[in-house]
Specification:
- The two termini are 18 Å apart.
- The chain is globular and about 65 Å long.
- It contains 16 helices and eleven strands.
- The chain has an eleven-stranded mixed beta sheet with strand order 1-3-2-4-6-5-10-11-9-7-8, sandwiched between helices.
- With 494 residues, it is of the alpha/beta class.
- Glutamine binds at residues 131-134, 157, 176-181, 209, 320, 433.
């Protein structure tokens, strides 16, 4: 075959598959071959499901051959799925020892949607354990490496999904974003990722980290591919009690409009508090250049102030651990996965020994912080105060969105750092979430689009675009317009 199918965008693969120029089996096999070739070094996948993916691909090919309309705009295009969504035909470990080898008795709603859309699942991707971390080094199964520089982190917690995209092991991927786990990995691998509005992508079958913040979402190499996947996975689900019963936003139309149009009449706010001298100079330079490009596209750019964003980190790192300490209580050695029991232990001893052996350091740290923050003597001082800050952040957003349509900032203050550099300094690790956290606390939506590479070190930088709840299409219009104006970014991956 002359073209390397792994280099094509998902939208191109889809049109070639639907016109029978190529088959889904060929596209899927090309990606499985690529995984076999490069993933030994990168470790983006925890589990590869080649056989199942090819069966799903064959079904798509047969349906198309029989003259059926493709099941979705992406039917036949394979995907990498973060190992935090349940799947009945492969393990779901959340990169934790406590769930090693565990296979769910049911599929997550998102998994079902992928299957119904005819999207073959290549396998499950690596992540920080239970989605806690910003580097994928908290995986119990070893880190993922950044395809741009294999001595560096791919971001986290969804580093596996981002690395799979950046290294052409998958043309589409799914992540989850509780505090930035879709957007920060996208930024440091020069890929695209969206955290949709809270409640618009079902959490049924998504193993909970912090339920009031968690949101699954689409990842791709282009804004259009990400939009196509967004429309596949979004939608009301009565099995998720926080699901929003609203129509899916027209994000594909917005991406197409953005790619061919200008941004006249669009008001863009640069968040003053997310533009700091403490960020890496090359990140700020890349961001400032992106803002100039938005201006050149006709957008009206103004500075806006959101003073409470400076407290987002402190509030998030109380609210998240509090919810984690409660959610992870279900891993009690009785119902799921690992059980450490020498036969002479009481139930309490089995639980304690299992949790001690099964959870990693960061997960234990957060369970302890959360248990403390929720304890009767400290609830008001910690968890209660954090909730008040959360409200103030939402009010800052509301005030800003009276003046502008979208807000922008760098996605992460830094380019990808060296593996090992921040593992012993959790606070330094948490700082990489500075710009992404406010969106999660408010329940809004945001996207990261590559803004080129930093002049400091030649490594990827992401532009973050934020929009109000249920205005996800604005991200895609602005993101696609910017992406088209920016032009391609040369990938270093051979
Ligand atoms: N890095 C953040 C954290 O460690 C975000 C994680 C996420 O979005 N799942 O909590």
């Amino acid at each position: 075959m002359s073209t390397d199918l792994t280099r094509l965008d998902a939208s191109d693969l889809a049109s070639k598959i639907h016109s029978r120029e190529i088959s889904s089996v060929e596209a899927t096999q090309a990606h499985l071959d690529r995984i076999a070739k490069v993933d030994g070094e990168l470790h983006a996948f925890l589990h590869v499901a080649g056989e199942q993916a090819l069966v799903a691909a064959k079904e798509v090919d047969s349906a198309i051959a029989a003259g059926d309309k493709p099941a979705s705009a992406l039917a036949g295009v394979p995907i990498a799925l973060k190992d935090v969504f349940t799947t009945t035909d492969m393990p779901t470990t959340c990169a934790s020892k406590i769930l090693e080898g565990w296979v769910s008795p049911y599929d997550a709603t998102l998994t079902t949607k992928l299957r119904e859309a005819g999207i073959p699942i290549l396998g499950k991707t690596n992540m920080d354990e239970f989605a806690m971390g910003s580097s994928t080094e908290n995986s119990a199964y070893g880190p993922t490496r950044n395809p741009w520089d294999t001595t560096r982190i791919p971001g986290g917690s969804g580093g596996g999904s981002a690395a799979a995209l950046a290294s052409y092991q998958a043309p589409l991927a799914i992540g989850t974003d509780t505090g930035g786990s879709i957007r920060q990995p996208a930024a440091v691998t020069a890929t695209v990722g969206t955290k949709p509005t809270y409640g618009t992508v079902s959490r049924f079958g998504l193993v909970a980290c912090a339920s009031s913040l968690d949101q699954g979402g689409p990842c791709g190499r282009t804004v259009l591919d990400t939009a196509l996947l967004h429309e596949v996975v979004a939608g009301y689900d009565p099995r998720d009690s926080t699901s929003v019963n609203e129509p899916v936003r027209p994000v594909v139309e917005a991406a197409r409009q953005g790619a061919t149009g200008d941004l006249k009449g669009v008001r863009v706010g640069v968040v003053k508090e997310l533009h700091s001298d403490s960020y890496q100079p090359g990140v700020i330079a890349s961001f400032d250049a992106a803002v100039e490009q938005l201006t050149a596209l006709g957008a009206e750019v103004v500075e806006v102030s959101c003073p409470n964003f400076l407290h987002a980190l402190a509030a998030y790192y109380l609210i998240l651990p509090s919810e984690v300490s409660s959610n992870l209580a279900r891993f009690d050695a009785m119902r799921y996965g690992l059980r450490v029991d020498d036969g002479n232990m009481s139930a309490e001893q089995v639980m304690a020994a299992t949790r001690a052996a099964g959870f990693g350091k960061e997960v234990k740290r957060r369970i302890m912080i959360g248990t403390y923050a929720l304890s009767s003597g400290y609830y008001d001082a910690y968890y209660g105060s954090a909730l008040k800050v959360r409200t103030l952040i939402a009010r800052d957003f509301d005030a800003a969105y009276e003046k502008v349509d979208v807000l922008v900032s760098p996605t992460s203050p830094f380019t990808p750092w060296k593996l090992g550099e921040k593992v012993d300094d959790p606070l330094a690790m948490y700082l990489s979430d500075l710009c992404t956290l406010p969106t999660n606390l408010a329940g809004h939506c945001a996207m990261s689009v590559p803004s080129g590479v930093s002049a400091d070190d030649g490594l990827p930088v992401g532009l973050q675009i934020m929009a109000p709840a249920l205005a996800d299409e604005r991200l895609y219009r602005v993101g696609a317009a910017y992406e088209a104006a920016r032009g391609p970014i040369a990938s270093p991956v051979a």
